[in-house]
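Structure first, sequence second, as always.
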């Protein structure tokens, strides 16, 4: 890392930037949590349609 006072000269007292936990190549960075159902976009109802009501509102309101 460069010295903030002299950006053109690296400062030997500044530590090199390094990740705290480098990722291992055989491990995915974000594993799926256990017990969470895997919903695909085709399995979820549209946001404007409540569950079980195709029109989006109860019949007494519509």
């Amino acid at each position: 890392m460069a010295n903030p006072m002299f950006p053109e000269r690296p400062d030997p007292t500044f530590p090199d930037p390094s990740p705290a936990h480098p990722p291992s190549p055989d491990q995915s960075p974000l594993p799926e949590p256990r017990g969470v159902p895997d919903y695909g976009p085709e399995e979820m109802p549209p946001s404007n349609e409540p569950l079980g009501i195709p029109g989006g509102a109860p019949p007494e309101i519509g």
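Margin note: The chain is about 0% helix and 0% strand.
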